[in-house]
Amino acid sequence: MIGCTTAGEIGAQGYAEGLIVAIGFPAQHFAAETLLIPDLARLDAQAAIGDLIRLRGALAQANPDREHEFAFLLVDGLSAKEDELASALAPGLGATQLFGGSAADGVRFLETFVFHNGTALRNAAVVTALRTDCPVRVFRFDHFQPSDTRMVVTSADPSRRRVQSINAAPAAQEYARLLGKDPHQLTPFTFAAHPVVVRVGGRHHVRSIRQMDENGDLIFFSAIDEGLVLTLAEPMDMVDHLSRSLGSLTTHAAPRAILGCDCILRRIEAQEKQLSGQISTLLRLHNVTGFSTYGEQLNAMHVNQTLTGVALYAPPAKARP
């Protein structure tokens, strides 16, 4: 049994608050093994890779008839180690796809926990490898597209995901100027509505701003560094995009269930635009269960303002003898 604290849940009725939400994988169709990483501050990448390869190998050997595999990651969302961890685990995954979410604490950003077999842990992560005879599809969706407005990080503290200056000007002041706003108008909704993206591997990935501090620095949800070129992103219609994206998971058949990790900034945007009801309806119709996060993972990447997850399909009918 694994779990984490959240910034809200996705339950039977869609978006929810204050619930305990769980999803169970029936032993008839799934087998799972977990790898606990108890101290992210002392992450030994080579040891983690070796442990993950051995775990996956043993799981495959014990379940030769379950040909489908995926990995699910839960990680402390205040550790600031998600980027490093996702990158470190990638060589141990082979062709297996990984998705996950960062444990959260509402909008307080004070205490986050990951749970593993009855123990609550800080600064930790749990990787779960699953094999199944059910077809699966790991996915990621975000509803932003890059604009023509670019900026360069000219001063930053990568260890704390803190940007002090953009385009050689104070970070919050320059970000606000590019938006046509006063720095004092910057709010969590501003950051949710106007994230930035970076281009990696031929596609853009969202890098969201968590907050502005008293010095006018911008603190991000994911890795940031000097010299990085950021592009302001423009949102597409959130409801229409989610409807089309979830619909794309229905090819030959609709998923029986979807496990999703949904960024807290998506929830904030939906609330501010009074779209929570419509989003909840879509999540309910598509059988999505999950939670709101401080960041999401897909394979070797840690991203923001994204919905990552896995669609689970019914196993093929067995031929009668």
TrEMBL record:
Matches recorded under Pfam families: FIST, FIST_C
Domain FIST C-domain, chain residue ranges per copy: 171-300
Ranges of residues in domain FIST: 1-170
SMART domains xref list: FIST, FIST_C
Protein name: FIST C-terminal domain-containing protein
Protein source organism: Pararhodobacter zhoushanensis
